[in-house]
Each structure stands twice: as structure tokens, then as C-alpha cells.
Amino acid sequence: MAYEKLIESLSPNERKILPYLKEKKINKICEKSGLDNTSVLRALEYLANKKIITLSSHKKKIVEIGVNGARYRKKGLPERNLLNLLSEKRVISLEEAQKQSSLSDNEFKASIGALKKKAMVEIKNEKILLTGSKEEISKKSLEEIFIEQLPLEYDSLTSEQIYALKSLEKRKDIIQIKEDTLIEINLTKLGEEIILNEQKVEELIERITPKMLERDSLWKGKKFRRYDLTSPLPLISGGKRHFVNQAIEYARKVWTEMGFEEMTGNMLQTSFWNFDALFTAQDHPVREMQDTFFTNKKAELTNKKLVKAVRESHEKGVDKSKGWQYSWNEEEAKRMVLRTHTTCLSAKTLSELNKNNIPSKFFAIGKCFRNETVDWGHGFEFNQTEGIVIDDNANFRHLLGYLKQFFKKMGFEKIRFRPSYFPYTEPSVEIDIFNPEKKIWFELGGAGIFRPEVTIPLLGKKIPVLAWGPGFDRMIMDYYNIKDLREMYKNNISELRKMKFWMKT
Amino acid sequence: MATVTFNRKQFEKEIGRLDEKMQNKIAMLGTPLEKFDDEKIEIEVFPNRPDLLSYQGFKRAFLAFLGKERGLKKYKVNKPEKDYIVVIDSSVKNIRPYTACAIVKELKFDDEKIKELVDIQEKLHLTIGRKRKKAAIGIYPLEKIKLPIIFKALEPDKIKFIPLESEKEMSGLQILQKHPAGRAYSHLLAGKQKFPVFIDANDNILSMPPVINSQLTGKITHETKDVFVECSGYDFETLNKCLNIITTSLADMGGKIYQMELNYKKKRITPDLNPEKMKISLENTNKLLGLDLDEKNLKQLLEKMGYDYDKGNVEIPSWRVDVIHEVDLIEDVAIAYGYENFIPEIPSISTIGKEEQKETIKRKIAEILAGMNVLEVSNYHLTNKKDQFKKMNIPEEKFIEVEGSKTDYNILRKDLTHYLLKILSENVDAEYPQRIFEIGRVFLNEETENVALAITPGNFTEVRQILEYLSKMIDIKLEVTEPEKLPQYFIDGRTVEIKLNNNSIGFLGEIHPKILKNWKIKMPVSIFEINLEEVFKKLI
Q: Quick one: which H or E segment has residue A250?
């Protein structure tokens, strides 16, 4: 049977309304199928998707029952109540009539008006007289018939209905006229075939229930209702790591696989670790408020021997260096700053290094801070990835080798090294990576070999230390195609839910 | 970051065509090519090379680098002539103690050259001069001056001259208060009883360093042929370098350098363009760079960087400020060799990789919470008082402020909770329920690692269930107790204090509607935030 598969894919509700589709009106379908409006609408939509029907909608004025109207439909119109009262008494005082009919002032007045208009009653000496015939009294009024028929399309009202409408319109909340979208249902040829054949398909299994699994007879030999397998679904999302942290976890894995040990430490550091231990002269512009976040805190420098060595390195130099030739101020070194680079962690690691552990390699990935205004390309917080290699035989080519390997793992095959300058490295290198899609080089940050003025005070001897601290965020932006740095920490929940995973391997 | 702009026509005429190869060469000298068009070329100069801040200085270095004019460039320096004297009065000692001076003759100035000169001065002021604090430069038309010159300090009301870009005579104080340059640099003379001035033999004030020159005696024009140059400041060595950079640039523009006699207690003569000497070891060079150069290579490479080399001795140009150790020479050898020519290599040394244990634990916690269908967020560490205190209804106390922040983020966050509420308030349009967490640093007495989680719409039971699940999964027993002192933003009777080993490590509960209103959040929120340091102690 050609239509079998399609019929098997109909849900129970779709099948339920199938016989009533010719009714064309949704409220009728609801009535006959016993389903609510929403279920019918949804089922119609599914049927339309399956091309069994076509749906078209038209804007139409609809006359609907109002709040009071709904009440009157059940209990009868006020004038009906009054008539009932009068049919017993024939004559009654106005006061008494209102009291006995328990109508409100408005309802009472309206009822009298309506009955007078139809010449059913007369008012004389504050009394109501019934004048209508028995037949007239028992007959349903046009208004009564009308409210029973609602809702109706405004444009197809009969003249009697229009009369009733005009009359009821004046009264409070009996009827309302609404602009409504009328859905027109038309059976397609396919639909007609489906209806003809529907009976031939037996009852299908909708849900598999535990009960069913207890009794084979409930499912044996029966067919399962087919699902609409390819229709779009509402999206869901789950809990997950923030994409920046996913990238950091990946880089952490790359470094550890390359034999590096992780360094961590405070973001709030003394100037000593952030600058002085890294041979950055105290009048260097980076040590101004314009570039660096200074705090109102100071911290004691406890390692006096190291402080002395660093002072000497700055003032007179070590290892035949001339140093910076100025008077180094310990107080300045105590000022606490938000670290401007993770290189302060490298300095600390060198000062604590067990000399038996050479060669050794360390890395860090962490937040750093610069006093910047915020725009698409700048922010006051950024991530850096740091690395040092302490090895008697380390040389410049090794530095380039480690960097090349790391960036390859980060997905950048093409990498360029340029001369650069940092107070604490010599030679110094600037790292550029190439974005093959945009065909541009972009600058990631620096690397180099620590100067003897840095390593001798920290390590106590002259050993080459390869060091790097390129920015990390640019790589994340590149991967996720983020154009504006501010997007990184915007925490837009809808966007985070949609954000794909860091899938580099 | 200092950038310098050159005239492209001049560059192409005197150096070579700016094709792709040339562009690359510029970068490979260590002066990134920032941008260029038909008229201009802009390069970046790193702070260690102020000698490249003038076109002349750059051209000198670059021609050597290209191999066109190798080795140390020599300049003829003429001895001081009669009256080429600057007397340094003892009154400047505690105000601006040093000056280094020179005379350069037979120059030809046009608008372009005058602009070039002003540019060099300004760039040097900004960099090596530390915004004129460490060194300030003055250049004067010699024809308007009568030598010798005296450098002394006078009381501000005794200083009277017409400053540049002005028509009226002004006193020292008036200049600081009213003249634009005076206002810009007044902080450098603030608190001084006397201000330094250069005065010529006619008793005319030439300038009041580091602020401004005189309109009458301190302005270079097309007529100027000979100039008097002075640098003043605190560190004689820096002034010398500054003077050398300027005089050699002027000499490259066609001038002849004359020395001056500086009458300090001990007489000094400047400029001193004699090269400094330093030793370089071929072995150290090869070891640090991983190369296998011979001495001939070394000599050639050093000459490409403007040095002279002879048997382990290097002669360093007197305008270089950055060569203080052998490694500085070795870096220049690497630059001359070409960074692009090094073959990267990974040595076979054996080390064991290791992740920091705290980071491992943090990752586990994040994985557990993500598994509970909670989304991780990531906030700034800096925040502001309004978000941290006012909206949270807690007292403004014990916080760390950063100085001079350029944004309204100016204190370090004390908790993650207020940031989670901020996120919820910014995401009222996103589909509910919303479940978010963050693991990160907060700044109290100590810098500690916290974890916080928020659910909306959420209630006490839900967050407590999550925390208990978490505590079971990481095998840490957390105690839930009636709080002794409740943070103001929680609802009393719906909040518990979390303890570990009897130490309070945080709170869990429902956020008070008052606070939700402050944040314009229209759903109930339940939150926990705990300090992880105690957890680390238990697990590590």
C-alpha cells in the first residue's frame, strides 16, 4: 500500500482529526475530536508538513461572546429573567421587579428597554405590565439565538444576526468583535487518499510502556508509529567549560607533553618580582601609572641576599655588565602591582630552583594586567603563556625550536621571528604567526634569552635561560573568529551556549 | 612606543627602493615597519635604540646593515675655539646639575630640515629623556648668542624673557602658569626655590630648561648656519649620549662638530665621540646563538651593525646607549646574521612535564559542575565599588584599589558572587533556567581561589544538592551550619555557612529580593561561593 508509511507516521492526534478535516473550522474539529485548540493546531501543522492538507490564513473580523455574554448564555439574558417573573405576576411594581429578579441597575434598565422596544411590556404608574402574548414570550429572541451561535464571522452575518448584533453591541461586554486570523484547511489530493486508506492501517504503538514490556501480546505483531525523523528540533545545550579555559587546558596539555612543569603564583606581586628582578630600571616608562596598575599596598622583601644582588645588578652590573648606573631604591621595589606579565613567575621560579635540577623547563598560563582603555583590540586583562628553559647548553636556536613546536600544536604552521627589545632578554625576539585565511601576520609577543643581569642574581650563576611570554588571547580569537577582544569576557549566556568546543588536537 | 616617520622620496633616493625585500629588511633590523604610503614611511623604534629616532641615525645603521657602509662611522670633531665655554654655576647643583654642550657649524636649514630637528628633539625627550625629566635638549642659533655661556639657577622673579611662541616678556613663574609648555612641564620644577637658565655673555636668557627657549635667542630659522646645542638633566652619561645622537645627526646633515669646554669643578669637554671598547668572545657568541661562526664571520657581522672589530675587541659607536654587556653585542651579531636564517631546533634533554596540582583539582571541579549542566563563565578580576558593595548591600571596606585606572574598573574583586549576579542581570533575555559557575581568584587578605555557582530560577535545595554532590565526588566532607553572621545579600533562614575542618569557607543560600531588584533580576536566584584553599590543603 502506497500510503501505508505515511499513515504510520501520523501521530494519534493527527489520526484523530483526520476524519474531521472536511469541517474546515478549527472549533468544529475541536468539538468533534475532543482535542483542545492547541493540540488541533499543532496536529494541523504536522499534517501540512506532510502535505496532507494545505493551510492558509486570512484575517477576519469575528464576533465573539463577551464576559457578560458568556454568563447570560448559561443563565439567560436579563430580559428573559424579567419576562419569567412577569409571566407569573403579569403586573408588578418596578421596585419589586428589580428586587425579585435580582438584576443590577444597568441590567434592569437594559431589560426594560429591550422589552419595551419589542412591545412586550408597558410602564404605567411605576408598574410594569406584561403585554406580549404567551407565544411571543416563549419564543427565543433574536439576541438569544445570536449569542448561542457565537462565534460568527462578521462578514457572513444574516440580517437577523445583524439586528441582534446592533442591539447587543450597546450593552456592556455581551459581545466583542475581534480581528482574528482564520485558518483555512484544504485537503490535498494526497490527503483525500490518506483519509480513504486510513482505516486500513491498524492501531500503532505510540509509546513503549513498562506494562507493554511485561506482556508480549501488547506489542507482538504490531507496528510502531513512525516518527517525523528529519524535521528541525528546538536546540538544547549543556554545561561546559568557558571557551577561554578550554583553550588554556589544551595549551597546558601541550606544554606538559613537551616536558614542562607548571608555575603558578599571585596576580598581585611586588614591583621587585614584576620589574626589578627582571632588570627593568626603576625609571623605565613601564613602571608608571599610565601603563601599570599600582595598588596602595607594599610588601616586605624577605630575601635580603637576593635584594642585595638585584641592587648590585641594577646599580653597577654583574658579570662585567655596566648595569643601569643609578641609585636603586628598595622602597620602590616594595610597591605592589597587578602583574604585567607572567614573567614574574619565571623570576620567582629561578630564585627557588634546586641547582641539581638543571636542565629543567617550566611554563605558566595566566592573567596579566595593563592599565589600558578598553576597545576592540585592547583590554586591561589578558592571558599570557610563559615558558623558561634552564639548560647549560641552551641556545638561541633552541628558543626558536620550542616556540615553533608550541605554535605548531596551537595550529600555526607558519611562524616568523623578528628582532625585538625587552629589558630582561638579549637576544630578544618578537613572534609573528600567520593566519592563512586572512593572509596576514599578527604579532603575539616576546621571547628571548634572559640577560646575565637577570639570571646571575636569581640563580647565583651564569646559565642561559630561554624565556618567552607571548599573548594567548589572540590565538583564541583567531580560532573562534572573534573580532573584538571585549567578546572574550562578555559572558553572553546565549552565545556561550552556542560556542563550539576547542577542537584542536 | 616610539615611531618615526621618514620622507619616502628621500629614503628611496638615499637608501633604495621600498620593495617587499626592503620592507622585510627594515623589520629584520629590529625596527618594525608600521605603515607606509607614497609619501611617508613610519617605523617603530624600541626604547633601547634612541640613536635610530632620527632619519640620519636610522640611515647610518641601515646602510651598514644592508652592507653598503660597514663598520664604525667616524666623525671629525673639532677642538673648542675661543670662548666655546659653558660655565656651570654651583647654584644648579640641587636643581638640574648637569649639562653637555656642543657647537655645530655650516648647516643649511630649510623647512624640512627644521622639522627634522624638532622631531629628533621631541622623540629624544619622550624616550631617553623620560619626558624631559632625565634629559632636555635645547638648540640655538649661534649668530644670536654671544659666547661664553653660563648655566645657573635664579629665583623665578629674576628670570625675565620672551618665551617661544609668545610676544611678551614673562617671569619664570608666569611661564609655568601661563605658557602652554610651562604648564605641561611645570611639575619638573615644582617645589624648587630657583629655576635653571642658560645665559649668554650679553646677559640674555637663552632658555629655562627643561621648559622652554627664548623667542629671541632660541629659534632656528632659514638664516641659521651655526648652532649651539645643550642637553641638561640629572645623569651626565645620559646627556652625553643624547648630545652624541644629535650632533652626529647634524653632522650627517652636513654640519661640522665643535667641542665645548664645560667648566664644572673639574673641566670636561663634550661631545666625546670616541668609541667605547668591549670584548666579545667568539666561543660565547657561538654557544649562545647555536652557530658555528669563524672570526671572519664575526667581524663581518659586527661591521654590519656599525661596529669595528679587531681580535676580540669591539669598538662601539658613541651614540649607542644599549651596549652594556657582551650579550648586547651577541644580539647584534644575531640580527646581522638574520633571524630568518636561524634553523630552529629542539634539543634532546629529558625533563618531566607536570601540571600544578591545584590546577588539576580546579579542572576536576569544573568538570563535575559542567556535568551538572552548569555553564562556566569567566569574569574580570577588576571590578568597581558600585557592583561590589552598593548593589550587594554590603559595607565598603577592606578592598584593594588600583591607582589611576583608565576605566571604571578600579578595585580588585572580593568575591565571585557579585559578578555572577551581574551576568544574570545582563542576560535576562537568554532562555531560563540559567545555571552558571566560575572558578577564580578573589582578593581578600590573601589572594585565594574560589568557586561560585548560581542558578536562576533557583532555590536553596537545588544549590545545596549540587554542593553536596560536588563534595561527595571530590571526597571532601563539607559541614553545613546555621550562619553566625549572614552576608546582607542572602535571605535569613534560607542560607547556610559552609565549613571544612571547622573553618568557614563560604555561604550557600537564596539571594534577597532587595539585591535582585538592585540588579534588575526578575527571577529567584540561589548561589554558593566557597574558598578552595582549604580544599586544596586536604587534597594535596
A: helix A243-257
pLDDT values of chain A reduced to their tens digit, one per residue, 505 residues: 467 888 888 888 898 888 888 877 788 888 888 899 889 999 998 898 888 999 888 888 888 888 888 888 888 888 888 888 888 777 888 888 888 887 888 888 888 888 888 888 888 888 888 887 777 788 888 888 888 888 888 888 888 888 888 888 888 888 888 887 778 888 889 888 888 888 887 888 888 999 999 999 888 888 898 888 888 888 899 999 999 999 999 999 999 999 999 999 999 999 999 999 999 999 988 898 889 999 999 999 999 999 999 999 999 999 999 999 999 999 999 999 999 999 999 999 999 999 889 999 999 999 999 999 998 888 999 999 999 999 999 999 999 999 999 999 999 999 999 999 999 999 999 999 988 888 888 889 899 999 999 999 999 999 999 999 999 999 999 999 999 999 999 999 999 999 999 999 8
Q: How far is CA A79 from CA A68, A115, A124, A162, B361, in A?
A: 14, 7, 18, 19, 80
Indicate which CATH number applies to the domain containing B29.
3.30.56.10
**Chain A residues near residue B352 by CB distance under 8 angstroms:** 259, 261
Distance from CA of A21 to the nearest CA of B (A): 36
Residue B347 lies in a domain: no
DSSP alpha helix (H) spans, B397-502:
417-426, 460-473
Indicate whether B213 and B308 sit together in one domain.
Answer: no
In CATH, the number for domain A67-176 is 1.10.10
Q: Do A268 and B340 touch (CB under 8 A)?
A: no
Same domain, B468 and B495: yes
- Which domain range does residue B211 map to? 77-270
CA distance B467 to B461: 10
Task: Tell if the CB–CB gap between B378 and A489 is shorter than 8 Å.
Answer: yes
Angstroms from B227 CA to nearest CA on chain A: 31
Nearest to A446 by CA among A374, A351, A334, A342: A342
**B101/B220 same-domain check:** yes
The fold of A243-498 is BirA Bifunctional Protein; domain 2 (3.30.930)
* Residue B344, in any domain of the structure: no
